[in-house]
Design goal:
Layout lengths: L9 E2 L15 H14 L4 E3 L11 H15 L5 E5 L4 H12 L5 E4 L9 H13 L5 E5 L1 H4 L5 H7 L5 E6 L5 H10 L4 E4 L5 H7 L3 E2 L8 H12 L3 H15 L7 H11 L16 H16 L5
Parallel strand pairs: 1-8, 2-3, 3-4, 4-5, 5-6, 6-7, 7-8
Helix pairs in contact: 1-2, 3-4, 6-7, 9-10, 11-12
């Protein structure tokens, strides 16, 4: 019998926060993009993750974005909020405030800036996860946040009933099998690395926190459904087209790259909030070439 405690699965895109050119929130544009994503067939939405530029928003703005998403989704798909605070106490306050807005749960990151050791990381996740009654997803991304939640640590956390899912972004698909061997199917496992989506699907995942796919939602969903159906030949063909675009998700400037793709696909604007700046010069032209090639050669589905 499965011990899995959540129904979260399939594509939960990391949704960007749309801004106006003056860097103010553009909730109208965010709403329009959410509608396109839901129409494409996604199974959930994750607001205010790394791609959602969580750490550049004021506390009141975060609440506005989450409230906008909950209102727009209107129960059609679950809405999760990323939790990316500097302190454990701040993260606890955040989940308690956002819980009142009607979210379905959270994606909790390690405390930002500080490089926690094993015991500190476990204490942070336990404290923040215990501050809410809602289900939550643990986001493991040691490449970006310098804290690696290992399979044995996931085993230690397995007695937290509302910890139901894992976004695994360590960059090594072997980790997925190690997690299965350590904790069975205790958690819904999502890949968080776009250009490892096919490889991760083969070794066994439940979902995908898609990044670049928010600029190509129909193709992203079609590719994912091919993997669910075990149609590996067809999935491989789509993946070969998609991979140059998916590589945009694993660069330091992935937010700028993906937002530029969103703009070129007609689904939003490229504007980011400082300290990020829009792309210029050779870098912009190089990324635009990748995006435009992808748009020109996008498969007919």
């Amino acid at each position: 019998m499965s011990s899995k405690m959540a129904e979260w699965a399939d594509v939960f895109p990391a949704v960007s926060t749309q801004f106006k050119k003056d860097q103010s929130l553009d909730l109208k544009a965010t709403t329009k993009h959410i509608e396109v994503l839901i129409e494409s067939g996604v199974s959930g939405l994750i607001m205010l993750g790394s791609l959602g530029e969580n750490t550049t928003l004021e506390p009141s703005e975060k609440l506005e974005v989450v409230q906008c998403a909950v209102k727009t989704a209107n129960g059609r798909v679950p809405v999760l909020s990323g939790v990316a605070e500097i302190t454990t106490a701040g993260a606890c306050r955040y989940v308690q405030a956002v819980e009142k807005l009607g979210v379905a749960g959270f994606m909790i990151m390690p405390a930002m800036i500080y490089k926690a050791d094993r015991s500190e990381a476990l204490a942070h996740f336990r404290a923040v996860g215990s501050a809410t009654k809602l289900p939550w997803m643990l986001y493991n991304n040691p490449l970006a946040y310098y804290v690696d939640v290992t399979p044995s640590m996931l085993n230690e956390l397995s007695n937290m009933k509302n910890l139901v899912a894992l976004k695994e972004s360590c960059g090594d698909t072997r980790r997925i099998t190690d997690i299965h061997n350590e904790v069975g199917d205790r958690y819904s496992i999502f890949t968080g690395v776009d250009n490892l989506a096919l490889e991760s699907a083969i070794v066994g995942i439940d979902g995908w926190v898609a990044g670049t796919g928010i600029a190509f939602p129909k193709e992203n969903q079609y590719f994912w459904e091919l993997t669910r159906a075990g149609k590996w030949h067809e999935a491989r063909e789509i993946y070969r087209w998609f991979t140059p675009l998916l590589h945009l998700d694993v660069h330091l400037k992935f937010v700028q790259y993906i937002k530029l793709a969103i703009q070129e696909a007609g689904l939003g604007k490229e504007w980011v909030r400082a300290p990020r700046l829009p792309l210029v010069g050779e870098e912009r032209e190089r990324v635009l070439k990748i995006i435009h090639t992808g748009l020109e050669k996008r498969p007919k589905i």
